[in-house]
Amino acid sequence: MRRFSDLIDRLVYTRSRNAKVKLIADYLRATPDPDRGWALASLTGQLDLAAVKPALVKALIEERVDPELFRMSRNYVGDLAETCSLLWPEPPGRPTPVVVPPLGEVVETLKALPRGQGAATMTTLMDRLDVPGRYALIKLATGALRIGISARLAKTAFAQAFDVDVEEVEEIWHGLVPPYLPLFQWGEGHIERPRYDDIPVFRPFMLAHPLEDGAVDLTDYAAEWKWDGIRVQIARAGGETRLFSRTGDDITNSFPEVAEAMPIDAVLDGELLVRGTAQGNSAASFNALQQRLGRKAVSGAMLRDFPAFVRLYDVLYDGAQDLRGQPWTERRERLEAMMARLPGERFDLSGLIVAGDFAQLAALREGARDASIEGLMLKRRDSLYSAGRKVGLWYKWKRDPLVVDCVMMYAQRGSGKRSSFYSDYTFGCWSEDGTLLPVGKAYSGFTDAELKMLDGFVRNNTVAKFGPVREVTKSLVLEVAFDSVHRSKRHKSGVAMRFPRISRIRTDKPAEEADTLETLAKLITDPV
Amino acid sequence: MIGRGSHMPNMVTPGSWIKPFPQGIYVEPGDFWIDPSAPVDRALVTHGHADHARSGHKAVMATSGTLAIMAVRYGEAGVTQVADYGTQQRVGDVDVRFVPAGHVLGSAQIVLEHQGERVVVSGDYKRRPDPTCAPFEPVPCDIFVTEATFGLPVFRHPDTVDEIAKALATLADNPDRCVLIGAYALGKAQRVIMELRAAGHDAPIYLHGAMQKLCDLYREFGCDLGDLRPVTAQNKADLRGAIILCPPSALNDRWARALPDPVTAMASGWMRIRQRARQRNVELPLILSDHADWDELTQTIRQVDPGEVWITHGREDALLRWCALHQRRARALDLVGREDEDD
């Protein structure tokens, strides 16, 4: 337990991603089974201990500290685990050195208890642990670490610890259960990589590089639309279906209608979209899909108003047959043949674009006005389905971004390496009554030299400070590029940009000549 | 001994001769202010931190340490009068005595007696040992005016020795980096240096320019701070393996950019709260405060055992609640200009 709480403590105070990966990797190498496996389960959000819920922790602390003082402390600290770890009274006459059970023992004890029955065990442990130990215990037991570690980062750390490919870890991850003994045995080279053919597991996605400049030969590359939804993998094996996001997160529960409609064992790659009535029941914009994202429970109204479907790009498995070693043309044929077996309400095929030459393709891309199209994909016809981004196989060729000229309004300091720079900028457009209204926020798109210039501008033109935020004189014009713009009720300006970034600093342009909200609103393609 | 429950025939309300105003405490029968936030004719100042010691008063009474700090910060003041620890002086109709508060060099509690009633204005204080100043002396009284900077039960400062050991262990583990400690320039910085020296660290310690004058002053008052050197544009990049002290505001600012991959540390009682440390990008939190923690605040109230507790600034709600739970009369004074300094 001590080693784990030490790890959590250090992770909390570490900013850099590489340093976090190294801390976790060192821990996984140095810690014995099953402790490291339980730790990995906690870091990846796979640990569920029904015996301890936040309400139980709160009840325990209120037996020991005046509830009113607890409430004030909790409001001040802002985190239940941290508040309780700090408030827990040190028991008198605690033996030194204190014997703290190893993590595996703690988890196994708590796992064996019925729902909500963890009070006595928690009390014994809390009495023995120090502040970081109590903090780690509560975080572990209530299942929500919230310390800025994603599952992907923890898996990357495993891969680094044992010098394996993170995509190979992904490949078997969903077949494993904590404390992952076969995973560590494989990592240490004692066994072959485990296989999981009869359960639906996530297979790493094949990704694309942006097409920077130049053209490709269409005899070597096939073109298809790049749809503006979320990339998903739908996997069915042994009769069970799961839906995975690009990062390998299981999102089955958010889109139950899609999972239920999958009739055959297979692994498919596609774009998750929702149907919009304004689009004649075809794909609606990303804005509509957003209504469905991040919801744990899906209401009947959601299912009715924003029905989801998958537009298929590729096939990885047909039944138990792994097709990833086949060229794209072969897989495409298999996918087309499979369509007859899939219900059209939930699955359709992303069509190929027929163009005589590259110039004609470029013209088609320019002419595409459909809100659900993000651009074009170019796929080498002989490309095997390989994990990650491999140069020269797949390209994404997004539509040219939209641009508007905005005025910088506020700036905020960045984090990590940028912590001494004002690197996050809020910018606005002119409204009808001549005031500036914020329309977005960007923290990328500029070079290091431009960042220095922007930072200097902020420091020399500050008119007010609000904590870490500075308000600046409304004098600097920023050309902002973005992929699309949508109506938004959350913003006073009524618009929200997708992927805004700074494309140019327009020191040559007076602020009065920046664009108006009206101009920006004209770029909205959503139906009213 | 004037203690709790003493009979005060002339007093309708205890302490009615002490008038708390937003800008400070006014003592009517002596016609003076304690720690006023705006210029006044006569001020008694508990200690040199800027939210207690302001410039521009016509006459100031304080300890020699506090007067020296004020002179460094504000230049020549008006009429000054030295108050030696423990020596009673009469100001108007009030007997006044300065007693060590253990907060920073020169810090004092001001003990006021008038018509048989004793009031202690403690200023800021702490109870644990500090090699740079005289230790807090508890004075039993009728009214105890206390701060509550760390007046929440989550604030329990750990042992100073362990925190200093953490800093030195980090330095040893990272020979290619420097350890940059943000510390309040008055008091905290010198205490950190003294504690590092006491732990056996005798290598040169490098200072941000804002620290120099006050370190020189502490030396004049007998603190042996060892080998201190300024951080300069020339040596900045060569400070691998060194400890550097700067004001907290410089930690994430341009000044720190050229330093060799600093481990960002901060010496402050606020570092007890993880989110506070993360907000300031602190990698190495050193929980080291010049204020009393929760246990010290409540222990001190028990010890001086006043008839009433007046709470000046900080988390007064929680300390009021504690007083209510322990059947102690208490009230919060609404003073302005007292900040949560970076302590």
TrEMBL record, chain A:
Known catalytic reactions: ATP + (deoxyribonucleotide)n-3'-hydroxyl + 5'-phospho-(deoxyribonucleotide)m = (deoxyribonucleotide)n+m + AMP + diphosphate
PROSITE patterns xref list: DNA_LIGASE_A1 (PS00697), DNA_LIGASE_A3 (PS50160)
InterPro entries, A to Z: ATP-dep_DNA_ligase (IPR050191), ATP_dep_DNA_lig_pp_1105_fam (IPR026333), DNA_ligase_ATP-dep_C (IPR012309), DNA_ligase_ATP-dep_cent (IPR012310), DNA_ligase_ATP-dep_CS (IPR016059), DNA_ligase_N_sf (IPR036599), NA-bd_OB-fold (IPR012340)
GO molecular function list: ATP binding; DNA binding; DNA ligase (ATP) activity; metal ion binding
Entry-linked PANTHER family: DNA LIGASE 1/3 FAMILY MEMBER, DNA LIGASE-RELATED
SUPFAM superfamilies xrefs: DNA ligase/mRNA capping enzyme, catalytic domain, Nucleic acid-binding proteins
NCBIfam families, alphabetized: DNA_lig_bact, PRK09247.1
EC number(s) given by UniProt: 6.5.1.1
Gene3D superfamilies named in the record: DNA ligase, ATP-dependent, N-terminal domain (1.10.3260.10), DNA ligase/mRNA capping enzyme (3.30.470.30), Nucleic acid-binding proteins (2.40.50.140)
Keyword Lipid metabolism applies: no
Domain of life of the native organism: Bacteria
Pfam family membership, one: DNA_ligase_A_M
Name listed for the protein in its UniProt record: DNA ligase (ATP)
GO biological process: cell division; DNA recombination; DNA repair; DNA replication
Alphabetical keyword list: ATP-binding, Cell cycle, Cell division, DNA damage, DNA recombination, DNA repair, DNA replication, Ligase, Magnesium, Metal-binding, Nucleotide-binding
Record domain ATP-dependent DNA ligase family profile: where: 301-431
Natural source organism: Sphingobium subterraneum
Residue spans crossing the bilayer: none
